[in-house]
Amino acid sequence: MARWRSSAGRVNVRYGFIKELSGLVAPGGLLTDRSDLVCYSYDASGLEFLPDAVILPSSTEEVRKVMALAQREGIAVFPRGAGSGTTGAFLPRGGGVVLCLARMNRILSISHSDLMAEVEPGVVTGELQNRAAAAGLFYPPDPSSLDFCTIGGNVATGAGGARAVKYGVTRDYVIGLDVVLPGGDVIRTGFRTAKGVVGYDLTRLMVGSEGTLGVVTGVTLKLIPAPQTVGTALSFFKDASAAASAVSRLFVLGVLPRCAEFMDAACLGCIADELPVGVPETASAMLLVEVDGQEDSIAAGLDAIICAFREEGAVGVYVAKDKDEAAAFWKARRSLSTSVRRLGPPHKISEDICVPRHALSGIIRVIEETVKETGLKILSFGHAGDGNLHVNILLDKRKEHEMTSAQSAVKKIFKKTIEFGGTISGEHGVGLTKRDYIGMELDGKTLDIMRSIKAVFDPKGILNPGKIFPEGD
Questions:
Q1: Which of 159, 256, 438, 456 shows the greatest Cβ crowding within 10 Å of its Cβ?
Q2: Which percentage of the chain shows pLDDT scores above 90?
Q3: CATH of domain 229-337
Q4: With respect to CATH, is domain 3-100 assigned 3.30.43.10?
């Protein structure tokens, strides 16, 4: 059979396959022009791999047909959401078809009585939050990309966010899934009830599997009643260790914040001009903390925060005077990822380690030591309330010595993270960028079991191949 040459200039999939594929989706649901393919070739990792074609299905039935055809023909399929991931988890390395679920973007139902929402995977996370809020309900997971990332992508990576310290991560809110398996079979996992323990928990297995086991086409999510009000405080510290100690003190005092965000000195320098309050000259770290609940509990919570922070040597504590000022605090925080580009080096390696809270000061010291040893610009920020730090290494990848230093820095930080009882990824997943390090955290037997699970779901290895497990496995 004649083979089809993609606009990428490679010969990867047969012409007959593309022709048959075009008949499985609605008009406009198949993209093959290079100008279109480029848009689906990258994510926030900085990696780029051009697909041979892009499919945009509109229904579970279309996904089912695509997967059945792909398995029959042995064509690799890479499920994709909004492309906001940082690990290359859904990039088409080696060629194949990107299956973008952006068109499946309906909120099917929001139930007040059952505290549940049924959505398609292409629903933008922030849109679901807004719709839930309009109904007096609350969907807590809040990744920093919530204005454009999708529920399907959040499910695939097990996304978290600032509010995870109190409310948990995406996994804690997914109670059921509709999943298309590589051969085209459709299964429903989980329950639509408040509890259920029949059989293995395939829902939790699917969440965080990075699209390697099945394609999620429907998600049933738990919602909770919205908190009555929120209080927000911003505080500055002379050094990062003092800020970390202040977070630990909150929990010792019995304060459970819904957010406790940390920034080191380099991060603070990036956003200082965007904050609505002045940054003290002696400040080298910042905490942004929120409490929520009933109206009469907020003042007591904020008082406890102010007291704890001053006892740890805070050089400035500010309580947001209204919702607008609180929003300005958060706008500055969420601008950080783009603001770091101002520091100069053209490339960035983003890691998201997580340690027990008591080890937060220790891992911060390791990062500070690594900066001195390598001379690289390394910024750390993130969700201090649950020990999850985003470590950004800035470098010029065209300079071999900087690449070598950066790789050494990553290995050292990962090694120390694991020694502290932590994990090399708190919420971003493994994908391509962390797969060569996974053996630092998981032993051989554990990895063998995981490979066996992958083989049961995807015996021909067509679904998001090359991800999670080290190359050659």
A1: 159
A2: 91
A3: 3.30.70.2190
A4: yes
